[in-house]
Write a structure and sequence with these properties.
Blueprint: H1 2-21, E1 36-41, E2 56-58, E3 61-65, E4 70-73, E5 77-80, E6 86-88, E7 93-96, E8 101-109, E9 112-120, E10 126-128, H2 138-145, H3 148-154, E11 156-157, E12 162-163, E13 166-167, H4 173-181, E14 186-189, H5 197-210, E15 217-220, H6 239-245, H7 248-265, E16 269-270, H8 295-311, E17 317-321, H9 342-347, H10 350-358, E18 363-366, E19 378-380, E20 387-389, H11 396-406, E21 412-414, H12 421-427, H13 429-439, E22 444-445, H14 450-462, H15 468-484, E23 489-490, H16 496-506, H17 510-523, E24 525-529, E25 545-549, H18 553-563, E26 567-571, H19 580-587, E27 591-596, H20 601-604, H21 609-620, E28 625-629, E29 644-647, H22 653-663, E30 677-678, E31 684-686
Helix pairs in contact: 3-15, 5-16, 6-17, 7-8, 7-16, 7-17, 8-10, 11-13, 12-13, 13-14, 17-22, 18-22
C-alpha cells in the first residue's frame, strides 16, 4: 500500500512537471547561453536553517553560477503538487493547511527545476525531507572554483573606523575599491560608524552592494552595557547586570532584542557574548563584561544569550577563548598570561565555552593571552628579544588541538583584533596573521596593513608554509555559516527605503525599551543598608539630598532629581577638591548620595583621590552616605564604612533610573552579587550571591 501511495505521488509530480511547466508545441527561438550552473531550493541545502514554526514558510531559491558563486533569486516559478497539505504563492510563501502528508514543492527557472519535499506528520509537525545530492554541495563547488586570492578575501575582516582622519559614516570610493580588490568577506563596524538608524542602514547596505560575489559578514561588538556601539539603539544592561538578575529568560530577551535591532540594520554578526569567568577583581578589561565569577552561572546565562541572539537570526560569538577572566593585564596594551593546568581550565575557564559549543554557537573569538601550561611553544619577542609564549590566537595547540579536536568544535574561529599591542609589538603584523591561520583561525579580524597581510599569506601558501587545504577548510566554514544565516548576494535586494522603515520601527522600539527597563531593575543589587536607611520613601519636600561624584555623576543626579525636587548636585573636578560653598551644601544635607566610578585597580585603591574623598564624605558629614557603584561592584572595598551601597553595573540611562527607583522604594531590589567582593587582605567582604531587599 505504501509503495502504491508513493507511486501515485510521483505520478502527480510528473503530471505537474509536464502540465505546469511544459512548453507549447511551437518552437521558441533559442535563448543565448548564460553562466547559470543550477537553481536549487534553499531548504534543500545541508547548511540551511530549515526550522518551521507556525503555518507559513518563506521558500527561497538559489542561483548557482558556473564560476561557483551563488545568489538569492526570485526569478523562479513556484508550485506545489499536494494542495491538501500546503499551498504556495507566486513569491514562494508556503502555507500549511493543517493536513498531514507529503507535499512536493517545485521551483523552476528556465529549464532548471528543483524539488523540495515538505512532510507533515499526524501530530502536525512539519519538516523538509533531507535530500543528499551533489547539486546541493554549493560550498564544495564554490571553493573548487575560487582563486587563492578570493579564498583569502573571505578570511580577512578589516575595520574602516576612520579614513584620512574622518569617521566613516558612508561608503567611500576608496573603501569600495578595497572590498573589490581584496575580495573581502567581511567588515567590522564601530561606534564612530553607526550614528543614526537611517545612516547605519545605508552604510551596511553599501557594504553588501560593494561585494561582487558573496554576501558579507557585517559585524559589530554590541555586547550591551559598557560595550555598546549603536548610538541609536536600545542601551541594554551588560553581562554582569544580567548575572545579577540570575535570569536566563531576561538574558535571552535582552540578546534577542539586540539581535533584532542589528538584523533590522543589516548587521548580521555580533561579537558577543563574553564568556570570560571574571574571578579576578583586578581584571582591567573584562570586569562587568563578564556574567559572573561562577563558571556554571556564566555558562547558563551565556547559552541563554546565544539562544536569544541566534534565534533572532544574528550570528553570536563566544569570546575570549580560552578565557580572559583571570588576568591583570589588558591585551590591548600588553600580553597577559593565565598560568593554570588543564584540569583547572576545564573546571573554570573552559566550562562556559564547552557549554556554548554544545549549544551550537556560531562563532568563537580567540584571546591574545598565553597559556604556557597547555602550550609550551616559545618564540622570540620582536619587542624585547626574549623568549615568550604563543597567545591562544597564534597557538595550533589551543585552536586546533584543544578547541577543534578535544572540545569537538567545528564552528567559526575569529581572532580578537589583530591591531592590539599584545600581537603587534611582540609578533609583528604579517607574521601574526600567518601564525593565526596556521593555528586554525578562520577569520583574521582587523589585520594591520591589509595589503601586506594578504601578500604575506599568499607567499606562505605559495612556499608551502600554509597548505591550501587549510585555507579551504576555513572558507568552507565561512560560506557554510553565511548560507545558514541567509547571508547572500541578492538579485533583487530589498529596497533600502523599506529596510530603513523597518529598522526605524525596530531599533529602540517600545518592546525593547521595556526589556531594557526590566533587565536594569532586576539587576540592581542592594549590598549594604545600615539601620534600614533605604528606601527614602515618604520624604518631606523640604528634605535636602546632595548627589556628589565625578564620572557620570550628572546622570545619577538627573535620575535622583526626577524622584525628589529637593536634590542638588556637586560635580567634583579632576582633583576631587571641595569649595567652601560645597562643604556648606554637604553640611546642610539630609542625605548624601555618592556616585562611585572605577574602571581599573588604580582608581579603586583607597589611596586614589576619589576614594579618599568618598571616605572623607562618610567621616566628616552627619548626613547618611549612600554610595552607588556606577560600574564595578568592587568599589566598596575602598570605603567599607559607607551607610548604604548599591551596585548597578553600568552607566546607561536605564540603570540610573532603576537605581533611583530602588532608592526611593518604587521597586524592591532583588539583584544578587555575581562576584565575591573581597576585603583586599584575603578575606571576604560580601560573598557571591549576596543581596538585600526591603
Amino acid at each position: 500500500m505504501r509503495k502504491r501511495k508513493w507511486f501515485l505521488l510521483m505520478l502527480a509530480v510528473s503530471i505537474v512537471l509536464t502540465a505546469g511547466f511544459s512548453s507549447p508545441s511551437k518552437k521558441k527561438p533559442p535563448k543565448p547561453k548564460d553562466d547559470v550552473h543550477d537553481v536549487v531550493i534553499y531548504q534543500n541545502l545541508p547548511e540551511a536553517d530549515t526550522a518551521i514554526s507556525g503555518n507559513t514558510v518563506q521558500m527561497e531559491a538559489i542561483k548557482v553560477y558556473k564560476d561557483g558563486h551563488f545568489t538569492k533569486t526570485d526569478d523562479v516559478r513556484w508550485s506545489v503538487a499536494n494542495k491538501k497539505v500546503a499551498r504556495i504563492s507566486s513569491d514562494g510563501e508556503l502555507t500549511l493547511t493543517g493536513k498531514s502528508g507529503v507535499a512536493p514543492i517545485f521551483a523552476k527557472a528556465g529549464k532548471k527545476i528543483d524539488t523540495a519535499f515538505l512532510v507533515v506528520d499526524k501530530r502536525g509537525k512539519a519538516s523538509f525531507r533531507t535530500i543528499k545530492h551533489k547539486r546541493y554541495k554549493l560550498i564544495d563547488y564554490a571553493v573548487s572554483k575560487m582563486t587563492v586570492e578570493e579564498k583569502l578575501g573571505q578570511m580577512l575582516m578589516p575595520d574602516y573606523r576612520n579614513w584620512n582622519g574622518q569617521n566613516v559614516t558612508e561608503m567611500l570610493p576608496e573603501i569600495e575599491q578595497q572590498i573589490k580588490d581584496y575580495d573581502l568577506g567581511g567588515v567590522i563596524l564601530f561606534r564612530e560608524n553607526v550614528v543614526t538608524t537611517e545612516q547605519t542602514a545605508r552604510l551596511v547596505d553599501a557594504y553588501q552592494q560593494a561585494s561582487e560575489k558573496y554576501g558579507m559578514f557585517v559585524s559589530i561588538d554590541q555586547e550591551g552595557g559598557i560595550v555598546t556601539r549603536l548610538q541609536s539603539g536600545t542601551d541594554m544592561p551588560g553581562n554582569m547586570a544580567l548575572g545579577a538578575t540570575r535570569s536566563g529568560e531576561i538574558t535571552k530577551d535582552v540578546a534577542r532584542a539586540i539581535g533584532e535591532e542589528l538584523g533590522s540594520l543589516g548587521i548580521n554578526t555580533n561579537f558577543a557574548p563574553t564568556l570570560d569567568v571574571n574571578n579576578n577583581p583586578d581584571n582591567p578589561v573584562i570586569g562587568v563584561r563578564s556574567f559572573s565569577e561562577n563558571p556554571a552561572l556564566t555558562a547558563e546565562l551565556g547559552t541563554a544569550y546565544i539562544e536569544g541572539m541566534q534565534g533572532s537570526g544574528t550570528i553570536a560569538t563566544a569570546k575570549h577563548f580560552p578565557g580572559h577572566g583571570d588576568t591583570e593585564v589588558d591585551s590591548h596594551v600588553g600580553l597577559p598570561e593565565v598560568p593554570y593546568e588543564m584540569d583547572r581550565l576545564k573546571e573554570v575557564e573552559l566550562y562556559p565555552f564547552q557549554q556554548a559549543m554544545n549549544a551550537g554557537v556560531d562563532a568563537i573569538m580567540s584571546a591574545h593571552i598565553t597559556f604556557p601550561k597547555i602550550d609550551e611553544t616559545k618564540v622570540i619577542s620582536k619587542k624585547t628579544g626574549e623568549e615568550i609564549s604563543l597567545p591562544a590566537t597564534l597557538s595550533h595547540r589551543i585552536l586546533t588541538g584543544l578547541m577543534r579536536e578535544e572540545m569537538n568544535y567545528d564552528g567559526l574561529i575569529v581572532t580578537d583584533a589583530m591591531n592590539m599591542a599584545a600581537i603587534t609589538e611582540h609578533y609583528g603584523t604579517v607574521d601574526a596573521a600567518i601564525l593565526s591561520v596556521k593555528a586554525g583561525t578562520d577569520i583574521v579580524l582587523m589585520p594591520v596593513g591589509l595589503e601586506a597581510v594578504r601578500a604575506g599569506l599568499l607567499e606562505a601558501i605559495n612556499n608551502g608554509d600554509i597548505k591550501e587545504k587549510r585555507i579551504d577548510a576555513s572558507v568552507k566554514r565561512i560560506l557554510s555559516l553565511k548560507i545558514k544565516r541567509g547571508i547572500f548576494k541578492e538579485e533583487s535586494p530589498e529596497p533600502i527605503e523599506d529596510r530603513i522603515a523597518r529598522a526605524v520601527q525596530t531599533v529602540g522600539s517600545p518592546e525593547h525599551k521595556a526589556i531594557e527597563k526590566t533587565a536594569a531593575e532586576k539587576s540592581i543589587t542592594l549590598v549594604k543598608n545600615n539601620d534600614g536607611i533605604l528606601p527614602l520613601s515618604g520624604l518631606q519636600d523640604t528634605a535636602k539630598i546632595v548627589v556628589i561624584g565625578a564620572t557620570y555623576n550628572q546622570d545619577l543626579f538627573n535620575a535622583i532629581k526626577e524622584k525628589h525636587a529637593g536634590t542638588s548636585v556637586i560635580n567634583l573636578p579632576s582633583d576631587y577638591q571641595l569649595t567652601e560653598t560645597q562643604k556648606t551644601q554637604l553640611r546642610d544635607a539630609d542625605y548624601i548620595i555618592i556616585g562611585s566610578h572605577t574602571s581599573n585597580v588604580a582608581t579603586r585603591l583607597p589611596s586614589h583621590p576619589q576614594m579618599q574623598r568618598i571616605n572623607d564624605l562618610i567621616e566628616s558629614y552627619e548626613a547618611p552616605a549612600i554610595a552607588v557603584a556606577i560600574r564595578n561592584p568592587y568599589d566598596i572595598m575602598s570605603y567599607p564604612e559607607v551607610d548604604a551601597y548599591i551596585a548597578q553595573y553600568g552607566f546607561r540611562t536605564a540603570s540610573f533610573k532603576a537605581t533611583a527607583a530602588a532608592i526611593f522604594g518604587e521597586m524592591n531590589p532583588s539583584g544578587k552579587l555575581p562576584v565575591t567582593i573581597p576585603t583586599g587582605q584575603g578575606g571576604t567582604l560580601y560573598p557571591f550571591g549576596h543581596g538585600l531587599s526591603y
